Automatic annotation (TrEMBL):
InterPro entries: UDP-GlcNAc_Epase (IPR020004), UDP_GlcNAc_Epimerase_2_dom (IPR003331), WecB-like (IPR029767). It holds the Pfam family Epimerase_2. PANTHER family: UDP-N-ACETYLGLUCOSAMINE 2-EPIMERASE (PTHR43174). This is UDP-N-acetylglucosamine 2-epimerase. It comes from the Bacteria. Residues 22-364 form the UDP-N-acetylglucosamine 2-epimerase domain.
């Protein structure tokens, strides 16, 4: 069976990884990677190198992102991605193509495949993020897909309602947590030395723009900056940089300015990669920001998360998440509350055993 996998960013590639490893070892499948989006952007770490390092026999690359991230540039990148993929789908045929999540470029690649009858399998559909325009892209991908692999029963019900059908919708948990029980972090001293982290506690931070509140992002970015400056006086701060969202550069510029002003207390990371990122989660005191990894994965590392603003609003949460508004004092106070807590000992609602294996078994059964 010929399988294509659409990957447009470091984030989705890290989630896919357990599935890709199992497909790669299974002679039933012929696997081809289709890399595009920020994987080919030097401003976002050129993470195509990480994919190539993992030893796939076939990697297609499609460049379609415009460097700017204002509304017109994002819309133009969407259109260019559709055009590039129209040619790609014309010349490349698959039995099944995996797509994941809610990125605008992922939506464009999928929409281009509709006239060609491409059979898509969507992972992480049915979720709700009211503070991000990705919510719309995610549902567009769902409507264009044949298989649906959701993270919880709540999201399965949402997909059932969206497609007006109960067929080909499967609850498999969060794919990125497939091997979490066997995960072994990089040895502590090696990890700290690798990234020049002081031998101290740290907060792991990731902020993205609220793409449903474009007029507020400059204000939010500055509130973030002032909050992180206060937090860095108390605990070391590691910031992973934003993806290519609308107005993502607003946050990048503010974060880079913050680093210049607080060079000894803040570390910026463009691209950790999954092993390093999971190790960072393991060693962190808490997580802070508005990224999905805090919602989906942090509970499996026994970490509390300070989730800021509305970007993740509507997404189901485990009991490790503390929500606060996008305001410096609220962020600072909630971080102090999270730091004061001991390790989180509750369940992660996104975890199910053998998510990747269950996807493979389902495909073999139904195709």
């Amino acid at each position: 069976m010929k399988i294509g996998v659409l990957t447009s960013s470091r984030a989705d590639y890290g989630i896919y990884f357990p599935l890709l490893e199992q497909i790669k070892k299974d002679n039933f499948f012929k696997l081809e990677i289709i890399a595009f989006g920020t994987h080919l952007s030097k401003n976002h770490g050129y993470t195509l190198v990480d994919i190539e390092r993992d030893g796939y026999q076939c990697i297609h690359t499609i460049s379609s992102l415009i460097s700017n991230d204002d509304e017109q540039s994002i819309a133009s990148s969407y259109g260019l991605t559709v055009l590039k993929f129209a040619e790609f789908w014309e010349n490349h045929k698959y039995d099944l193509v995996f797509c994941l999540g809610d990125r605008f470029e992922m939506s464009a690649a999928v929409q281009a495949g509709i006239p060609f009858g491409v059979k898509f399998a969507h992972i992480h559909g049915g979720e709700t993020t009211l503070g991000a325009i990705d919510n719309t892209y995610r549902h567009q991908i769902t409507l264009a897909s044949y298989f649906h692999f959701t993270a919880t029963d709540i999201f399965t019900t949402k997909v059932n309602n969206l497609i007006d059908s109960f067929e080909n919708v499967f609850t498999i948990g969060s794919l990125s947590l497939t091997d979490i029980k066997e995960f072994i972090p990089i040895e502590r001293k090696e990890f700290y030395n690798k990234f020049s982290i002081p031998e101290d506690d740290f907060v792991l931070v990731t902020f993205h723009p609220e793409t449903m509140a474009l007029k507020s992002n400059i204000h939010y970015a500055n509130e973030m900056k002032e909050a992180l400056a206060l937090i860095s006086e108390k605990i070391f701060v590691i910031v992973t940089m934003p993806n290519a969202d609308t107005q993502g550069s607003v946050y990048r510029e503010v974060i880079e300015k913050l680093k210049k002003e607080n060079s000894e207390r803040i570390l910026l990371i463009e691209n950790f990669g999954k092993l390093n990122y999971f190790s960072a989660m393991h060693y962190s005191k808490i997580l802070l920001g508005n990224t999905s990894s805090g919602i989906l994965e942090a509970a499996s590392f026994s970490k509390y998360v300070v989730n800021v603003g509305d970007r993740q609003k509507g997404r189901a949460q485990s009991n490790n998440v503390l929500n606060c508004e996008f305001e410096k004092n609220a962020i600072f106070d909630t971080v102090n509350e999270a730091i004061s807590k001991s390790e989180f000992i509750g369940e992660n609602i996104y975890f199910k055993e053998n998510a990747a294996g269950n996807i493979i078994e389902t495909i073999k059964m139904f195709l």
